[in-house]
Amino acid sequence: MIRSSQINFLVICSIFSIIFLSCNSNDGIPDSPPSELKGTYNGNATNKANSSDQKPLSMTITSTDNPIAGTYKLNGTSGKLTGSVLGMILSMTLKPDASGTTYNFSGTSDNNASISGTMTGVESTSNVTYTVLVKK
């Protein structure tokens, strides 16, 4: 048989649980940690078929909410980058402001200190693949 002190304890715990849950403004969804992916990354894109073909690459990520957005500069050509991020996995499109090659990037971010991966595009009717490493 349950004693009245045990019943009182259960009722009090239930009341506090209801009050706590009703005061939570985000409906039980945990807050997302702030993204540190924003920022400027500098490094190189190295042609996989010809490692002596290295192009300076700079990426500035300005919005890290999906879709992510920013700008880039590859070997003197500027453009916009757009894409998505899932955890540390990145998928981006780098499209030049003027005529030129549009590249597709697939890679990861290393604790938001660097971005690495593969970038592909068509240059002068030839498919080209670059290995990318840029750091904050």
What does this entry look like structurally?
There is one protein chain. With 136 residues, the protein is mainly beta. The chain has one helix and eight strands. It has one helix spanning 4-23; strands spanning 39-47, 54-63, 68-74, 77-86, 89-96, 103-109, 114-123, 126-135. An eight-stranded antiparallel beta barrel has the order 1-2-3-4-5-6-7-8. A hairpin with a 6-residue loop joins strand 1 (39-47) and strand 2.
Oligomer: single chain
Terminal CA distance: 66 Å
H and E string: HEEEEEEEE
Main β-sheet description: 8 strands, antiparallel, barrel
Number of helical runs?
Answer: 1
Task: Report the uncertain regions.
Answer: 29-34
Shape: elongated
| Radius of gyration (Å) | 24 Å
- Decide which structural class fits the backbone: mainly beta
Helical content stands at 10-25%
| % residues in beta strands | over 45%
The neighbouring-strand order within the major sheet is: 1-2-3-4-5-6-7-8
Number of strands: 8
Mean pLDDT, to the nearest integer, reads 84
Helix/strand layout:
Blueprint (H helix, E strand, L loop, with lengths): L3 H20 L15 E9 L6 E10 L4 E7 L2 E10 L2 E8 L6 E7 L4 E10 L2 E10 L1
Antiparallel strand pairs: 1-2, 1-8, 2-3, 3-4, 4-5, 5-6, 6-7, 7-8
Task: List descriptors.
single chain; about 140 residues; mainly beta; 8-stranded antiparallel β-barrel; 1 helix; about 50% strand
